[in-house]
């Protein structure tokens, strides 16, 4: 998989290039020699990579040169141990306090005998001993497999470096025996220390490091492969120990200056992570007295300053996630209704609220929504929470919104959660927090807020005092098409109409047909569809009693542009274009009045569309 991209025109790339050029001449520091093989590293090697949480990797310099991960392996193996054993069990073996001692110090807690943290060698060896496996081979296989998930490619142990440390690593063996003595390790320690040597000798590039960082920044999910490298809930544990103990004895100064959890290794690698945003991998083998790569420190410090990456001063505060709110008095569904019904909804619709959410829903972005719904709606009849524009939702936001829905329902409000199909976390919360399965079904009954709103409107209209919708027996007096016709004119008009009945799903109009008539709906509801009805087509609108559908044929005679389908039992009175044309000669006044009514009907719909556009475009969270 091609991970690294040519970005010659990008100012991001240009800045990395300039940093590389600026620090390449810096020759301070020394290559580590206590593992003899590391002494062979070319001190001039220098690579920088940045990986974003969508998997884009910038690179400059020796970004594809392989080196051994060394101590940078420690937080990742700690993450695997957390996945295997859970944080409570791990805490009985290894603490999380900065030690203030050198990385290879024989430093154990005075009382418990446990290493102070997993970033010093004692803690790292204890951690390796916690990886669940039947044999040492299986253990290192699991560790290498875990790194491969982070890097998104197979990785190997550099045999020369491993053998070199295996031959010389007596101090680490001593630490292993001490851990055995305090029963932090319960097995024979030599094999565990040997596995630790191998994990430190895994070979990778700084592109790999950057992507591993981006995986940690991305809730443990490798942004390129989509693989979960570590359980999301343990990412914070790993990053926390990196933040407090990741840079040897410079950890305090590092977090103060750079403000990102990081880990460095004696081979010259540094990995830094900006949670939620990016991973940085830098390689340059010359180390300062604390054991950190000199150039890598400079690069990270300058990157943090220039790009304002310090985690404790984030560049933005989370925004309220309310995209739009309106009531049914301000904006109706796409159902075309008779004017009497529209008037009723205008008067009574204040009790139906639609709240459109957007962006990333977490506590700080959701809390204002909860506040607003609670404050604004009083005792609503209906609340529709629309998740169409939500990018992500975390556990607490799901719980808060589901609890809000539950409490509103208890108070007698009808609640619908729409466009939730891409938010499994939310659906899961609904199922686990609402014991009544019927309640969860109702919450998810409608995919779109338009359909949910249509239902709320129908419910509201049920309360409406008689007369309900106009009846055919009234000779179409109350129909929009015949508004303003005298009794005699109505009689003439009614004689031209023929009655048609339809069952659910029957087509009334088919896309592409000749347009020869319009349909007055005298019973039921019809849906207007673009594309396949019920399939991947889209239900654009619907019409109910007293309105007309297909009237555009009377104006331009163009072929039908959509499918119109009966939703349940439907009756229509059909009016032929030919009869309408005939009226021009026989009853020109009726012809003019009908033409005017058709114009009014279209104008009403256009006005609604304009109003929709204005509501949808003017509100800001
Ligand atoms: N394998 C090395 C050791 O245990 C890792 C040290 C490091 O990178 O800090 O000595």
Provide keyphrases for this structure.
single chain, 621 residues, Beta-lactamase, Transcription Regulator spoIIAA, Jelly Rolls, 3 domains, five-stranded antiparallel beta sheet, 21 strands, 42% helix, binds glutamic acid
* Number of E strands: 21
Give the biggest beta sheet. 7 strands, mixed
Uncertain residue segments: none
CATH C-level category of the largest domain: Alpha Beta
How many separate domains? Answer: 3
Q: List all distinct small molecules, including ions and cofactors, that are bound in this structure.
A: glutamic acid
The outline comes out as elongated
The residue-averaged pLDDT reads 91
Radius of gyration: 35 Å
| CATH superfamily caption of the largest domain | DD-peptidase/beta-lactamase superfamily
Quickly give the CATH architecture of the largest domain.
Answer: 3-Layer(aba) Sandwich
Q: In which range does the helix fraction lie?
A: 40-55%
Measure the end-to-end span: 40 Å
CATH topology of the largest domain: Beta-lactamase
Q: Total number of helical segments?
A: 22
By helix and strand content, what is the structural category? alpha+beta
Q: What share of the residues does DSSP label as strand, in percent?
A: 15-25%
């Amino acid at each position: 998989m091609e991970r690294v991209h040519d970005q010659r025109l990008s100012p991001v790339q240009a800045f990395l290039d300039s940093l590389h050029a600026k620090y390449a001449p810096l020759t301070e520091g020394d290559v580590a020699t206590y593992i003899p093989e590391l002494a062979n590293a070319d001190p001039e090697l220098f690579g920088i990579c940045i990986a974003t949480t969508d998997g884009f990797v910038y690179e400059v310099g020796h970004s594809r040169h392989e080196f051994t991960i060394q101590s940078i392996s420690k937080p990742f193996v700690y993450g695997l141990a957390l996945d295997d054993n859970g944080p409570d069990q791990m805490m009985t073996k290894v603490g999380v306090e900065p030690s203030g001692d050198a990385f290879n110090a024989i430093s154990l807690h005075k009382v418990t005998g446990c290493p102070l943290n997993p970033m010093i060698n004692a803690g790292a060896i204890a951690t390796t001993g916690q990886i669940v496996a039947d044999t040492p081979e299986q253990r290192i296989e699991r560790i290498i497999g875990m790194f491969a998930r982070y890097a998104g490619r197979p990785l190997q142990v550099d045999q020369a470096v491993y053998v070199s440390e295996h031959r010389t690593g007596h101090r680490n063996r001593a630490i292993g025996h001490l851990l055995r003595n305090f029963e932090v390790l319960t097995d024979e320690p030599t094999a565990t220390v040997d596995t630790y040597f191998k994990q430190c000798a895994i070979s990778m590039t700084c592109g790999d490091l950057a992507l591993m960082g981006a995986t940690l920044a991305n809730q443990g999910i490798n942004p390129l492969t989509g693989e979960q490298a570590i359980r999301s809930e343990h990412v914070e544990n790993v990053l926390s120990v990196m933040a407090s103990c990741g840079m040897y004895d410079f950890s305090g100064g590092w977090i103060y200056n750079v403000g990102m959890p990081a880990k460095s290794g004696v081979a010259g690698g540094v990995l830094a992570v900006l949670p939620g945003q990016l991973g940085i991998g830098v390689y340059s083998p010359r180390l300062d007295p604390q054991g950190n790569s000199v150039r890598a420190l400079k690069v990270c410090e300058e990157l943090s300053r220039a790009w304002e990456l310090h985690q404790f001063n984030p560049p933005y505060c989370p925004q309220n996630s309310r995209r739009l709110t309106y009531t049914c008095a301000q904006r109706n569904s796409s159902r075309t209704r008779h004017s009497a019904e529209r008037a009723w909804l205008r008067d009574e619709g204040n009790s139906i609220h639609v709240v459109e959410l957007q962006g990333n829903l977490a506590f700080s972005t959701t809390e204002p929504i909860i506040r607003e719904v609670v404050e604004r709606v009083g005792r609503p009849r209906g609340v529709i929470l629309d998740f169409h524009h939500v990018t992500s939702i975390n556990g607490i936001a799901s719980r808060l919104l589901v609890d809000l829905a539950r409490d509103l329902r208890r108070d007698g409000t009808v609640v619908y959660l729409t466009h939730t199909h891409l938010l499994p976390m939310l659906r899961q919360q609904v199922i686990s927090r609402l014991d009544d399965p019927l309640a969860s079904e109702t919450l998810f009954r409608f995919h779109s807020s338009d359909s949910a709103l249509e239902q709320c409107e129908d419910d509201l209209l049920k309360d409406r005092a008689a007369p309900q919708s106009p009846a055919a027996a009234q000779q179409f007096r109350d129909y929009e098409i015949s508004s303003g016709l005298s009794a005699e004119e109505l009689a003439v008009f009614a004689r031209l109409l023929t009655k048609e009945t339809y069952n659910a799903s029957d087509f009334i109009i088919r896309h592409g047909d000749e347009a020869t008539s319009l349909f007055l709906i005298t019973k039921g509801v019809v849906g207007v569809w673009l594309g396949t009805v019920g399939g991947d087509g889209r239900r654009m609108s619907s019409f109910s009693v007293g309105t007309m559908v297909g009237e555009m044929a009377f104006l331009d005679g163009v072929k039908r542009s959509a499918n119109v389908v009966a939703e349940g039992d439907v009756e229509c009175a059909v009016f032929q274009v030919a009869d309408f044309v005939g009226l021009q000669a026989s009853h020109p006044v009726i012809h003019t009045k009908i033409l005017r009514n058709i114009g009014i009907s279209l104008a009403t719909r256009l006005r609604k569309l304009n109003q929709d556009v204005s509501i949808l475009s003017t509100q800001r969270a």
